[in-house]
Amino acid sequence: MTTTGEELVAARGGPWWWERRRGAVLDVGLAVVSALECGLEGVPFAWATGIPVAVGVVFGLLAGSVLLVRRRWPIVVVLVAIAVTPASMGFLLGIVGLYSLAASDVPRRFIGSLAGMQLVAVLIVMFVRMGQDLAREGVDVEDWIVPFASITTALGVTAPPLLLGLYVGARRRLMESLRERADSLERELQLLAERAEERAEWARGEERTRIAREMHDVVAHRVSLMVVHAAALQAVARKDPEKAVRNAALVGDMGRQALTELREMLGVLRSSGGGGRSREVPLAAVGAAAAAAASRAVGEPAGSGEGPCLSEIEELVGQSAAAGMVVDLSVEGESRVCAPEVESTAYRVVQEALTNVHKHAAGAKTYVRLAYRVSEIAMQVENEPPVGAGSAAGLPSGGNGLVGMKERVSALGGVFVSGPTDAGGFRVSAVIPSS
């Protein structure tokens, strides 16, 4: 767990403009030492200028205490140091002030200008004072000694703090840049994690929807046929016992198959680990089980891993015809094998449309048309108006069948249209790209 820049700022509790208490203590200590130094140096300054000693001491104390604001106003500190240089005071003030200026965020041109001014001020003062001292003491030296000593002293007083301040300032800015970059990366990682969670939630929702479609396809059609056969069984039980027996056998077979398929899918959903505790099962596994059950529902071999195909449309229509529906199947174009998802979707559209006819228009004549075109497959299921009051089979409807068909077709880039016809029937049409 890294410490972000915001946490560092929140952890700082220094007074006024100081970020930390230890920084405030350091600056107060430096200001006290500088004030004492300048106060002591104010005594000879007062003697040399003829002003009262107290005034010279107070002036020195005030000038030296300016070091207290070196972090907030480093330019002021350097200007004061330059101003008191002719008075031969402020040695610590000049060094610390120039270091603080170089380490601050002040533009380089100002730093260079003020550093140059301080260098020139120290150079002039040293040159004049050294020449006066040598003349007063009567010491005869070479002409180059005084300029050389003045330049060396001025560079020694200004160059080291300037270079050290520039280094510390560059290092501080680098650390702040790295910290900001770390904060930015941490925020990006959090954002990526949130997006990944959103994508995972979206994927889970999509997988749940797919499982619901598969379970609907597996169960709805078969149970609808069971209800239709049960109604036929009730109608012919006394008139034609043999036909009633056949219908009863069909209902029993369909019921057992539906129960087997439901048991397999629910078994995956409720699978548990040791100790009786439920363990989380990936939705993909449930979807795979649902797809496998859907494949077996249309007679596909177990373990094939593929859904139903268009070659089984005739068998699907035959199941509805066996339940008493009058179905007319017509196929246009040359039959060919398409992508598994295309064939499975086309099959499901026809299956759901026939199921809806069983539910809402039992006994109505139905037309199933399948057309193989150049780059697409078109299918249409249209039923005539139901005949008589008993046209409805009494099957419950959740209203999700048409929605599921449209979602399937749209996912493959196709077009789905459904609605009542002018004659009073209902039509379901879909066109799916075959590649």
TrEMBL record:
Location of the Signal transduction histidine kinase subgroup 3 dimerisation and phosphoacceptor domain: 207-272
Enzyme class: transferase
InterPro entries: HATPase_C_sf, Sensor_HK_TwoCompSys, Sig_transdc_His_kin_sub3_dim/P
Reactions mediated catalytically: ATP + protein L-histidine = ADP + protein N-phospho-L-histidine
Domain of life: Bacteria
Phosphoprotein is among the record's keywords: yes
Membrane-traversing stretches: 45-69, 75-98, 110-128, 148-170
CC annotations in GO: membrane
EC number from the UniProt entry: 2.7.13.3
Keywords: ATP-binding, Coiled coil, Kinase, Membrane, Nucleotide-binding, Phosphoprotein, Transferase, Transmembrane, Transmembrane helix, Two-component regulatory system
GO MF annotation, one: phosphorelay sensor kinase activity
Coiled coil regions in record: 168-199
The keyword Phosphoprotein is annotated on this UniProt entry: yes
Name of the featured protein: histidine kinase
